[in-house]
Structure formats: C-alpha cells, structure tokens
Amino acid sequence: MRWCEMEDIDNLNDLTGRKIQQYRLWRRDDGDLSVASEKTQMDTLRVFIRWAESIDAVEQDLSTKVRSPSMTPEQNTRDEMLETEEAEAVLSYLAKYDYASREHVTVALMWHTMMRVSSVNALDVDDYNPGEQYIEVHHRPETDTPIKNKKDGERLVALSDDICMLLDDWIEEKRPNVTDDFGREPLVATREGRANKTTLRKYVYQATRPCFRGVECPEDRDPEECEAAVNDQEAFRCPANVNPHAIRRGSITHSLNSDLPDNVVSDRANVSPAVIEQHYDRRTEKEKMEQRRDYLDRL
Questions:
Q1: Beta-carbon count within 10 A of 284 CB
Q2: How far lies 97's CA from each of 106, 151, 213, in Å?
Q3: Mutual orientation of helices 197-207 and 102-113 as an angle, nearest 10°?
Q4: d(CA 58, CA 9)
Q5: Residue 85 to residues 89, 90, 216: CA-CA distances in angstroms?
Q6: 194 sits in which H/E element
Q7: What residues does 155 pair with on adjacent strands?
Q8: Among candidates 10, 197, 13, 42, which has minimal Cα distance to 1?
Q9: How many CB atoms are located within 10 Å of the residue 298 CB?
C-alpha cells in the first residue's frame, strides 16, 4: 500500500509485471531484505495476486509475472555475516580516522545494539539517555519512522561507556542542528534532516569495503579503477563489503560466542530465540558444546 501510494496506483487493474518488478526492487531496498525474506514476501504477494485474478481485480495471469529469487537450502537459513575480527577492524579504523562521523555512529550503533536499519532510522536525540546510558526504540508510524515489529519492537537498549562517549561527541560536536519534517530531532542527521534508511545502508556499504581501510581487495580489483572504490555512491557494488543485516547477524553471533545468555540476546535484538537459532546463530555445534562445558561445574 505504501508503494502504490508513492507510485499513484489506486486501482489494481493498473498493475503490470514491470511494475511488480519495480516493487520487488524497492521492497528489497526499503526492507533491507535477505534473499530468504525477499522470497517469502514475493511468494506471499503472488498468492494475493492469484486471488485477485479469481475476482477479476487484476489482469489475468499477472501472478505468473511475480518473480522471486531461487534459493539453496543454505541460503534459506543463513546469509552473509560480518565477522567479529572484521567488525573490530572497521570500527577501529573509523575511530582513528573518521571519529564521530555519521558513518562511525551508524556502524557502531548497529554492531553494539544489534539494531535493524529501521530502528536506527527511528532514533531521536531525546531517545538517548546519557546519564543512565541507554537508548529507547519507539514505533512512530504517524511521523514516518515505523519499526519492523511495531509496538512489540519497542524497548530500552543499554549502552556501553564507549558508545555513550561516541554519541556524546557526535551530538555535541558534529551532529547538524536540524529537525525532520515533523519537528523531531533525529539522532543520525544530515544537513537536510533525518538520514533515511537508504542513506544508512550506504554508510554501511562504504565503511565495510576492504579498500576503505587500506586492506588489499580479496577480489584482486584495482582500487583506482573499481567503481565501488572510487565512487562512494557505488559502494554497494563492492563484492567484498556487507549489508546492514550482516552486521546484525554478526553482532548476534558475537554476543552468543561471548556467553551472553540466549534470552538476553533475544530481548536486546528484538528477535525470538527460535529465529536466532534458525537464521542468526553461526556457532558450530562444537563451539556450542564447549560453551555448555563451562556450566558442568554447577551441576
């Protein structure tokens, strides 16, 4: 419905295969979807279009034009992940050479809090409590910052000393003094207002390019000729960087490997233990066994 409103489509008879493909690309970007999520959502849309065909609400056979990605069994459960060592390298580089920049704040928040892009996008300056060191996540669809799980996704997230120092310096020294279209003060702001989700994803793509921090390209590309290296707007084309969801997956796995209890990770990341087990937990069975071994003395 949001996309149709943006495209001035108010009659299902106006839908075509080309427009549905445009929707698919928009939804992939807007929702920061993994391959598995994109497939699920497009398959669901196909079922709806098939029902609409049965009552002549759309052109016949339109459902056959709804495309969704094919997947291997591995893709259905796990996707790319930012490894702990690489995350620490990226954050160290940003802290040294681009401290308290929008890119630094964005990547650090995502890694430390396990937040989705929509949650980071929804944060206001007033949501940050520096005294008690936490940040509030709110679902505010009426002012254009919904979060994935709506009211169920609202929560308080504790912050470390380092993250609070980073946010304090960002707010006091570098954050533009702007409001968004609704008079709110976005935490991650540009000179034009609230940094939208596409912009936040761009920061992640830029910061996680190996060449960004002077690391040799694993794809043997020449940084002086690679379009993803010479043009920040094309950073998403880099074959060696990661998307925001990979940061979330990596952070969740890092927390589990650090012996943070499953229920704590679940509450902090706003994701059920079952979903963590299926889609996020990258620990091997041996790693899980060794972690359980530490509890044997308590038996």
A1: 9
A2: 15, 38, 9
A3: 90
A4: 13
A5: 6, 9, 16
A6: strand 193-194
A7: 137
A8: 10
A9: 5
For 128, what's the count of Cα atoms within 13 Å in the CB-facing half-sphere? Answer: 23
Distance in angstroms (rounded) separating the CA atoms of residues 182 and 166? 26
Helices 17-30 and 197-207 pack at an angle, to 10 degrees, of 60
Could you identify the residue written with the tokens 């949001």?
Answer: 2
Q: How confident is the model at residue 71 (pLDDT cuts 50, 70, 90)?
A: low
Tell me the residue length of the chain: 299
Which pTM was predicted?
0.72
Smallest CA-to-CA distance from 1 within 9, 44, 60 is with 9
CA distance 82 to 112: 13
Which amino acid is located at 17 in the chain?
G
What are 106-158's pLDDT values in tens digits?
A: 999 999 999 999 999 999 999 999 999 999 999 999 999 999 889 999 999 99
Average pLDDT, the chain: 88
Paired tokens of 187? 């935490």
Helix axes 262-269, 244-257, angle to 10 degrees: 160
Q: Tokens at residue 225, please? A: 């000729």
User: What tens digit of pLDDT does each residue of 205-254 get?
Assistant: 999 999 999 988 888 888 888 989 998 888 888 888 988 989 998 999 88
Going 243 to 245 to 251 to 257, the CA torsion angle's sign is negative
Rounded to the nearest 10°, the torsion over CA 212, 216, 221, 225 is 50
Beta pairing, strands 155-158 & 128-129: unpaired
DSSP code for 124: B
